[in-house]
Amino acid sequence: LEKYKGNVVLIVNIASQCGLTKNNYKKLTDLREKYGDKGLKILNFPCNQFGSQMPEGDGEAMVCHLRDAKADIGDVFKKVDVNGSNAAPLYQYLKAKQTGTLGSAIKWNFTKFLVNKEGIPVNRYAPTTDPMDIAKDIEKLL
Known about the structure:
- One of its GO terms (biological process) is response to oxidative stress.
- The active site is at residue 18.
- Belongs to the glutathione peroxidase family.
- By secondary structure, the protein is of the alpha/beta class.
- The chain has one domain: Glutaredoxin (3-Layer(aba) Sandwich), CATH 3.40.30.
- Helices cover 28% and strands 18% of the residues.
- Strand 2, helix 2 and strand 3 form a beta-alpha-beta unit.
């Protein structure tokens, strides 16, 4: 993730079949369009740990899903676990630095972490937080 240093980064665990998907994809696309040229990078990590709501595999199936959803949400990585003993190291770090209502555990799809230009997580947002409501915090860091 070294290539993102010097940028404000929003990290999101995404799912294709969640009730929150449509709004989050639209608003993440809006954020990317509004702030992408100003230094915001959005990193999306598909996760199937919550209700098996991300059944697509990595690669072509993921690309097709995002294209069909008209989601231009930023960089999309391979599917990861965000909780448990197999949680991706990035998520272990994020959860240690920014706890939520369930302690460090990720509650659901579309939990969001805002990371400053130095790579330090500065805020964590609930799955139900509208991405556009994060805009004011993003602007402060840009």
